[in-house]
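New to this. Explain the following:
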Amino acid sequence: MQRRSALRHALAASFIALSLLPGFARAADTLADIQQGWEVIRYQTPARQREKAFEQLADRARQLREAQPGRPEPLIWEGIVLSSWAGEKGGLGALGLVKQARGLYEQAIAIDARALDGSALASLGVLYAKVPGWPIGFGDKTRARELLQRALKINPQGIDPHFFYAELLADEGQNAEALGHLDQALQAPPRPARQIADTGRREEIKALIGKLQAAR
């Protein structure tokens, strides 16, 4: 019995050592893995490490999307990861990433615009709101407003669509209306298994409320 136990421990140790080697095949990611990975990077990882972490997560998200063709959810999450990577990268080098993300969101919308409570619509709206306009990029505030309003119709109590729409309104100087949507965002019900994201988003909401109130 002792020999068998020792053998099991040796095999387990060998597997752990192998799993740390570059290129070792890891278990296939689930959508929850990508989601959780994004939350940890976005809200709990030091800023200097986020770009590389999002780059690595993007590869995992791509593999998940390729393993589940025709499903809107992996398309959405790969788009979210690419958008976040672009945000950390910044500059003209990020344009290729946001264009990829736009294509993924558009594919997801074509399959099912209501998937993940309209997240593809909301995320695409954010891209149109924040990406520079022509001739540099494809940014378009009018298009952003249309997409975010569609997302709000699908998910009228959601923390994200209210926050994203408030950001757009604030950028356009509509502070009173933005504050109204921020208040609704704070009242959004908690999302199952999204505590890290909810906590981080609420901090962003409070920061924007403080900024807008100070500007009065």
In short: Residues 21 and 172 are 50 Å apart (CA to CA).
